[in-house]
């Protein structure tokens, strides 16, 4: 009898690294890993080789940077999507795209299962589970971190026992997720909202104190609500986001300290870096004050909140999102 096949969304971090031997051990299954290149700034080949050395039968890397910008980030930008007036939804926007790729690979590889490394207290578990159910309800979802009941220290011990190299140590307790649209950091001393984030939390933004004294001016051109050029030069979306991330981050723009309301009913202190997200949302909003009527602007604020909640709650693959897109696209004709 052929073994079960499981396609695991793999980042190379602690949870998904431990998940490879754990799934093989507890489900008697072959594990195929899928890593999405979303601009994390990491060596994808190194991650792929790590998965194979950890026990994966096959390791796949897919570059999703351009579809991420064009199909997910730009529609959210056009809608004015910012969760609780703070969070540009970088992680939340990436999850449905990764789930879509998981489903596609599972179908191609003949796998009946997909898996992710999300815990039982975060939002991402819902985003993955709901997206997979919407796209391929016949697939079964495995969430090892919800099942195994291990603490962080116990995970590291399990990893050591199974010769799994992991980057997390007790001196580096942060949980980080990163893509083109932003970087999120949580856990460790950040869980106490009284603690000011230490400077080593930040990677892509400088503090205001260390930023250049002289300002830099950017002229951003939009077409139907999406950025198309900087300083008169037509550029693709990926180049625009990378350029603004570098320039704005260098000038101390894009740091967010947010105590947010999670989907699962708890509050969580999150630190975000989103230089391009902050700049482009401000620029887009400023353009809309010139091109939209009063009634359009007031109603679009309601649409933006609905859109943000929908994305945050993992409902990207829904008719409601498609309906909201239709209204938003109508408002963007002259933006």
From TrEMBL:
Presence of keyword Amino-acid biosynthesis: yes
Boundaries of every Arginosuccinate synthase-like N-terminal domain copy: 5-165
UniProt keyword terms in alphabetical order: Amino-acid biosynthesis, Arginine biosynthesis, ATP-binding, Ligase, Nucleotide-binding
GO cellular component, one term: cytoplasm
GO biological process: argininosuccinate metabolic process; L-arginine biosynthetic process; urea cycle
EC number: 6.3.4.5
Domain Arginosuccinate synthase C-terminal: 174-335
Enzyme class: ligase
Record protein name field: argininosuccinate synthase
Organism whose genome encodes this protein: marine metagenome
Classification of source organism: unclassified sequences, metagenomes, ecological metagenomes
């Amino acid at each position: 009898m052929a073994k079960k096949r499981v396609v695991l969304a793999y980042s190379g971090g602690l949870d998904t690294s431990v998940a490879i031997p754990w799934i093989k051990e507890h489900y008697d299954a072959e594990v195929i890993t899928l890593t999405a290149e979303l601009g994390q700034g990491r060596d994808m080949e190194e991650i792929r080789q790590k998965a194979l050395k950890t026990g994966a039968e096959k390791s796949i890397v897919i570059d999703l940077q351009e579809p991420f910008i064009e199909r997910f980030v730009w529609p959210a930008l056009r809608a004015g999507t910012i969760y609780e007036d703070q969070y540009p939804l970088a992680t939340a926007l990436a999850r449905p795209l990764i789930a879509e790729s998981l489903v596609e690979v599972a179908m191609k590889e003949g796998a009946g299962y997909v898996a992710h490394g999300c815990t039982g207290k975060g939002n991402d578990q819902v985003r993955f589970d709901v997206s997979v159910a919407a796209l391929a309800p016949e697939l079964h979802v495995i969430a090892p971190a919800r099942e195994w009941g291990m603490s962080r220290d116990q995970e590291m011990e399990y990893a050591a026992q199974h010769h799994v190299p992991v980057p997390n140590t007790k001196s580096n307790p942060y949980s980080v997720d990163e893509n083109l649209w932003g970087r999120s950091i949580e856990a460790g001393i950040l869980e106490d909202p009284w603690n000011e984030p230490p400077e080593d939390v930040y990677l892509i933004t400088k503090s205001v104190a260390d930023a250049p004294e002289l300002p830099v001016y950017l002229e951003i051109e939009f077409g139907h609500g999406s950025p198309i050029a900087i300083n008169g030069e037509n550029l693709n979306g990926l180049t625009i986001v990378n350029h603004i991330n570098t320039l704005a981050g260098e000038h101390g723009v894009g740091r967010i300290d947010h105590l947010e309301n999670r989907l699962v009913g708890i509050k969580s202190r999150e630190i975000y870096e989103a230089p391009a997200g902050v700049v482009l949302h401000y620029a887009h909003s400023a353009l809309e004050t010139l091109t939209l009527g009063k009634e359009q602007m007031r109603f679009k604020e309601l649409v933006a909140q609905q859109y943000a909640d929908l994305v945050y709650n993992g409902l990207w693959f829904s008719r409601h999102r498609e309906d909201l897109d239709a209204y938003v696209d109508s408002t963007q004709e002259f933006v």
